[in-house]
Amino acid sequence: MTPLLELVNVEARYGPVKALHGVSLTVDEGQIVTVLGANGAGKTTTLRAISHTVSRSGEIRFDGRSLGRRLPESVAKVGIAHVPDGRGTFAELTVLENLRLGAYTRRGPLKDDLDRVHSYFPWIEERRDQQAGLLSGGEQQMLALARAFMQRPRLLLLDEPSLGLAPIVVSHVFQIVAELNEHEGMTVLVVEQNANIALQVADQAYVLEVGRVALSGASADLRENESVRKSYLGY
Amino acid sequence: MALAQIIRRLDLERNEKAATTAHLRLPASWPVVFLLLAFCVFLGIGSLRSGQFAQQTVSGLATGSTFGLLALALVLIYRATEVVNLAQGQMAMFSAYIAWQLIHWGLPWWPAAILTLLISFVGGVGIERLIIRPVEGHSLVTVVIVTIGLFLVLDGAATWIWSGIVRYVPSGFSTRPVRFGGVALSIQDLCTLGVSIGVVLVLWLFFQYTKVGLAMRAAALRPAAARLVGVRVGWMLALGWGLAAVLGAIAGLMIVPVAGLQPSTFQPLLMYAFAAAVLGGLESPAGAVVGGLALGAMLNLIGTYWSFVGSILRLPVALAVLLAVLLIRPAGLFGRGTVRKV
Fold first, then answer.
1. Is the pLDDT of residue A53 over 50?
2. B62 within 8 A of B193, measured Cβ to Cβ
3. Range of the domain at B151
């Protein structure tokens, strides 16, 4: 079976500074895959390389086909939803408008999908006319997930969903990610600093160090790995 | 999980408070609302007491509504790219010339007007693609200077093609007066006012309820995030220029029958539009329209009742308003002011 997403020797740079030095990874359909690493390891850049919001080279294949020189706006169209760092919330717009924008690449009525969104996030329905910038951090992260859901993507790219959230909210967010994966068949590539929780929900994991893949394997194996435990899990 | 529920409950309560305050929030602060209401009462009472005052108020509001449309065009482009389009007036002038040419070739007024709007839209989109696009991402000064260049090119081209003599463009509306009680109002003024308000309403509905309108707002507010959900930001900006050109053309078609058409006709008009936009707050579409109406009514009344202002000193008065607003309330009547988190 061809993997849903395949990165082969991907390099990326910000001006003269190289951030990725040849990253290769694969994500199979239906999986949750996590990319771990310290600050500056290239986690965010890996996602940006996929959505082409950073200049990149190397081969990226989605569903067997090369993403080539596609612009970010057409990457969304092939079925990849990228929730960037900072969550990409349209803070000045209402909650509902954020959701409508999530569905921008799709046609047809949104009623069914909005109902589905409300079943995952019941609070959204009563607060749909509120300005998104007024939501709490946790709610904005949920809204970002809901917005991505509205796009009906085959692959969801999540950039550090735990950032700035209380531990209990983090586990709620990851619980929903797991549900979306299980019930909606959404494949997820999630980048995290919080290795502990990421390894709990993920099937596969990659560890990045200064722009290279240092380690990879099944999450369960990585959790047992001595150096991962010391460096990222803290025990 | 019980704790999680409590936390979410707390979150909810906090946000409900935010929601109620958001509900009460007006697009402007209380003193501004009070000021505008006072101005309306002043216009209302004046109009009831004096026929001439009523006439001048309505014709001032009509002129003001065209300032408002031009100001709205400025605001549209400013919100999307933070560029003040100094060529906006000349774009409207060019549109008016196109209308004149079409009518001159024998087209009836309405088909000529609609064709003009279409051509203007395409022209606006083309200008963004061909002239503004290449300097996108450069400093604001660069882009503003490009718009000055555009101003000169359009000005020169119009003079070259149509020569500098004053052309007469007929009005689409009857110039007959109608009588309300003892007051004679011109149908043209009333129609101008009506068309402007209609255009603003349609534009508002477009931005609020259509997918493209929403995408245009998203592209202006958060281009990077908009790209990630699949919005083609570049085209949205071009569309914004197209709409601005159409607004200018509509304003032009309504102004020109009164003001006469010459390449220089729109230079003072752009100044009025600037004053209106700044009065309303450059960020605010509603502000631009209200600013235009207020400025139009005010200038007309001042011109009528202060004989030394007459029709010659109106522009300086408008500029004085501009200066006063910038000194007292730089964000304009409807502006929020800029708060930058560091």
1. yes
2. yes
3. 3-8+56-176+186-333
